[in-house]
Design goal:
Number of strands: 9
Radius of gyration: 22 Å
Shape: globular
Structural class: alpha+beta
Strand content: 5-15%
Strand order of the largest sheet: 5-6-4-7
């Protein structure tokens, strides 16, 4: 199947990443397209879908085997046919990300605090784990930056000091502690890669196959960026931040590629009971579409 230039470029970029992480793409496909439609898919349908991405059946079966052994996929047999769905734990992990991917990031609330661990602090490894659990990011092994007020037992712990940074230092502290350069680069790369697709799809209808390729790879890339985004208040973000532009772009593309890609799934997606059921109603609210 010949692909239009924007789709071909996106697929080429996916295969250029080494290793290609086929198992991760399959998780994206399940979370984005299969879970809203009952969650189960015949292995033959999965192989047919992955063939659109230039991934052969052998690699698909290897990836499915890995996902099964790692507790991501569970199988059901009907005769000689195998059907796979995300396990309860795998589905729960993806559902945790669903809000951030499709509805938006919850913005951090509260005043910025810098927590310093003194050399005499007992069990510093446990203290660091507690701070990370409270949403703090490590600037160094003994300096953490966050917005949540510390629990009383942690705030009163001997050798734990909470400081309020100067206004002039807050943006730089946030960028350093939360590695905003990496997140900003991920958003910028996303916009650069997928903008031609938005321009092309505005004037040309994509085929069902191209739409499913575009939809899955777009969510796959957007997911990687948004799940690394800490959700800092806007006044702490760098001036060239493209998080909002990336989300708006994702929404425009998603609204265009969902209808034809769903038609492909209607015709090719098989479950134990036959065709895939229609998506749940909340599916149509994703990314503002």
């Amino acid at each position: 199947m010949a692909l239009s230039p924007p789709i071909a470029a996106i697929l080429k970029q996916f295969h250029a990443r080494k290793p290609a992480r086929i198992w991760s793409l399959i998780v994206t496909l399940y979370g984005d397209a299969i879970v809203p439609r009952g969650g189960s898919l015949w292995i033959g349908s999965l192989i047919e879908i992955m063939d659109l991405f230039r991934i052969d059946a052998g690699h698909v079966r290897t990836a499915v085997s890995r996902l099964s052994s790692d507790g991501w996929l569970a199988s059901t047999k009907r005769g000689r046919a195998s059907y796979y769905r995300l396990t309860k734990s795998g589905e729960a992990e993806f559902l945790q990300a669903t809000q951030r991917i499709y509805s938006g990031l919850p913005e951090m609330q509260g005043e910025m605090r810098v927590v310093v661990l003194a050399p005499k602090a007992t069990d510093p490894a446990a203290l660091r784990a507690r701070l990370i659990g409270e949403g703090y990011a490590a600037l160094s092994p003994v300096i953490h930056v966050g917005f949540q007020a510390l629990p009383a037992d942690l705030a009163g712990h001997d050798g734990v000091f909470a400081l309020t940074p100067r206004d002039d230092d807050r943006r730089a502290l946030a960028a350093a502690a939360f590695t905003l350069d990496e997140v900003s680069r991920a958003y910028r790369d996303f916009v650069n890669l997928f903008s031609p697709l938005a321009d092309a799809s505005a004037g040309k209808l994509l085929s069902e196959e191209e739409a499913l390729i575009a939809r899955t790879l777009m969510i796959h890339a957007f997911r990687r960026a948004v799940l690394r985004d800490p959700g800092l208040p806007s006044h702490l973000l760098p001036p060239d931040w493209q998080g909002d532009a990336a989300r708006a772009l994702a929404g425009r593309i998603y609204a265009r590629v969902v209808p034809p890609s769903e038609q492909f799934l209607n015709r090719h997606g098989k479950t134990e009971e036959g065709a895939l059921p229609p998506p749940e109603p909340s599916f149509y609210l994703r990314l503002g579409s």
